[in-house]
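name: query_chain
kind: protein
chains: 1
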Amino acid sequence: MSDSTGAGDGPLTVLSAGAAALARADDLDTALSVIVETGAAGVGASSAALFALDPDRPGLELLLTLGMADDAVDGFAAEVADTPDHPIHRAALDRSGSLGRVQPAPDGSSMTAVDLPLVVSSGGVEDGIGVLTYGWPGAHEVGTREETLLVGIADLAAAAIAAFRTQSLAAERAEWFERVAHTDPLTGLSNARTLNRILELEVARAQRQDSEVSVALFDVDGFTALNLTAGSRAGDQVLRQVAAVLAESVRLVDTIARTGGDEFVLVAPGSAGVTVARRVMDGIAKLETVGGAAVSVSAGVARFPQDGGDAESLLAAARAALSGVAGRASIAEAAGEPSA
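structure:
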C-alpha cells in the first residue's frame, strides 16, 4: 500500500477546515458541505455522498452529494435507501465500511469507492448514524495515511450530525418547556401566568394610547353539578369544547386563557368585550349536550379605564359582574366609576 494522502490539500488543512466548520457553522448542511468537500479535495476524490440514519423514521436519508449529475441523484438515493444489500446501505447498518470497492460509474466505466460508517459514542455505547462514501474514477489504492485521513473526515461528519441533532433536540425541549410554562395542558389555551402578563401589557398600551381594553370572565354554568353527576371525564370534555369555541370566536388581537377550574378569561383590546362575549355564547349554544345536560356559559365584562385602572382591578370588576348574572347563559357588565 502507498502512504500517499492524495493529490489535494494536506491532512492538516483538511482536518482544520472540518473542525472549523464543526465549531462555527450555523447549520448542519453548511458544516457537512465544508467537511465533505474539503475532504474530497484532500484525497483527490471526484464524487461523494453522505447518508444519515434518521432516528425518527426507518431508512437512510441522503443529506448531500458531490460530483454527481442532478438528474442522477434521486435514482441513486432511492437505490441505496431501498436496497438493504447495497454496499453503502450495509455499511451504514453494519458499521463495517469498505476500502477500494470497485463499481460501475454512471458512464459505464469503472470507479473505486470507499464507504465510511459514521459512528458516535454515548455512554460507552456506539451508535451508527450514517455513512460517507467517496469515489475515484478508475482504479485507486487507498494508502495507510489516506485511510487515516478518511476516517478523520468521517468522524468530523459524524460529530457534526450528532452535535446539530443534540442542538435541535435541546431547542425542541426548550420550546416544549416554554409552551408548558405558558399553556393550560387540558385545553391548549394560555394559562393564568400568560393571561396576567398580557393583560398588564394591554393595560399599559391602552394608557399610552388613551384607548380601552375589555376583559370578559366566563364560567361554565352548572359545572360542579355536571362533574358530580356525569364524572370528571365529562367535565373535561366540556372544558375542551368550550375552549375550542372560545379559540374560534375571538379575534386575532384577542387573548383567551383558562385560569383555573371552569374559569376562562378573554382580553380584548378596545371596547368590544360584550360583542365578543355574545359571539362566544352563540357558539357554545350550538354544542351538543354532555352527560344529558346542555352546555352554556355566563360572563362578566369589565372595561379599562371605566371599571378599573389596572389588571388586578379589571379582573376583580369582571368577577363581580359575573357574580351578579341573572341566570344561565347571561352576560353582565361591570358598573364601575370612571377612573381619575
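note: The chain has two domains: 11-180, 192-333.
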